[in-house]
């Protein structure tokens, strides 16, 4: 079988992925408003010293997310 889907929280610095879908309907609304649209390319650009929050590049800007939020965005 194929690999299980990855979330933004699974990315390493410099890795990219394409937003596929969301696990949490309530959180998805907030993320959609911030530019995390299905089909958008995201790249993990930075992590805080203790790993949370993280910073991703999406839709032409940098977005800070908690790992809990990032784990709800699935990638293909």
UniProtKB/TrEMBL annotation:
Q: Which UniProt keywords apply?
A: Iron
Cross-referenced Pfam families, in alphabetical order?
FeoA
Q: Where is the signal peptide?
A: none
Gene Ontology molecular function: any one: transition metal ion binding
Start and end residues of each Ferrous iron transporter FeoA-like domain: 6-76
Instruction: Please identify the protein, giving its name as recorded.
Output: Iron transporter
